[in-house]
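Marked as duplicate of an earlier ticket. Keeping the data here for the record.
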Amino acid sequence: MQGAGGQMGASAGGGVPPAVAALVWDMLASGITHELGSAPFPYCLPVAPAENLAVHVAPPVAPKGPAEAPMPVESAAAHVWAAGEGGGTTVVVAAEKEPTGAARQLLQNMLKAVGLAEQPVGVVGVWGAPAGLLAAGVAEALVAHIQAQSPARVLVLGQGPLGALVGQPCAVTPWHEAPTVLPLPAQVGPVGVTYALEHMLKYPTHKRAAWQHLRRWQSQQKGSQS
């Protein structure tokens, strides 16, 4: 401990602001560095969607059978799609396509950290203007795509899909402080909520809070199995 503390003190004396040095030390002690990786970056405030924007989303297409996924919902406002495998973990993102590169690696590390590395992973995505994600029909389309994957658990990543599901602007941190019920049936299993992958790559200090979100989600899964 003295050796680690000495290294931190030396770093702080070499030009790292004391507040940053203390934050890094706190993150090291939390264990999040080992699980997901970390680096000091400033806090990023969530951006609220634009208001009073007239949009239209086509009605959601319900699945025709348990093994058949609904067709994507497209409009000028939003596009809802699904990919990957069902029956395991369904990840809900605000993106045009499945995570790739560093974002995909981060997602894999996150799932591995909570013991889900070997489970099937499906992705349900929604993409469009911020206000378009809140338009009528988007939440229903998301729920239909999630249900079609018959997941054992769901992980919502970011305020984009979170707001789309609840139908109003909803950032991750305030949601954890006062959770809003998400319109998902109990059959989809425990639902976790944390920051978007791109957000954590840009602001890695938020990975510590994300780790707490994942641990809470993991405890919900264990409770549902007992």
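See parent ticket for discussion. Residues 123 and 129 are 20 Å apart (CA to CA).
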